[in-house]
Design brief:
about 150 residues; alpha+beta; four-stranded antiparallel β-sheet; 5 helices; 4 strands
């Protein structure tokens, strides 16, 4: 009887493992969909902005970390990188209807379409094993300008 129950448990564990769904960010389209969702709910749900930040690619996260560090020095309080996400800056101006990804190695470009022909956007994603991350175009930070008298 003990052998039967151990075998049954093994089969049950395997069956449950086979029924698990892929993570929402396992595809580029899923990562974009999740990111847009988090950005849209960020105003009412502050933890959603932290979640949105975690869906960003390494270049975007580094950029926002540098911005947070600079803001912290200039404002006298500590800013977190996710606080640098501006709600209107990263969202879509239309409701996505379809998303199609073109994957090239560790890069993907997700074509997002809305209702009308003018409602289109292309979103760059990068693979960060085992998930995909959104890599929006952010302007590079410029080094702070020094004044001639040695101040900033």
């Amino acid at each position: 009887m003990k052998r039967l129950s151990v075998s049954f448990l093994g089969v049950l564990v395997l069956a449950l493992g086979a029924c698990t769904r892929a993570a929402p960010d396992a595809t580029p389209e899923g990562a974009v969909r999740l990111f847009v969702e988090k950005m849209e709910t960020g105003a009412e749900d502050p933890p959603a902005m932290r979640d949105a930040y975690l869906l960003l690619g390494p270049h975007a996260r580094a950029n926002l970390k540098e911005r947070a560090d600079r803001a912290s020095k200039g404002q006298g309080r500590r800013y977190e990188p996710f606080e640098m996400l501006a709600e209107g800056r990263f969202g879509l101006k239309f409701r996505p209807k379809t998303m199609t990804a073109k994957i090239d190695g560790d890069d993907a470009f997700v074509e997002v379409r809305g209702e009308g022909p003018e409602e289109r956007a292309t979103v760059h994603c990068v693979r960060e094993a085992p998930a995909w991350r959104v890599e929006p175009e952010l302007p590079d930070l410029q080094a702070p300008q020094r004044r001639a008298d040695g101040g900033t």
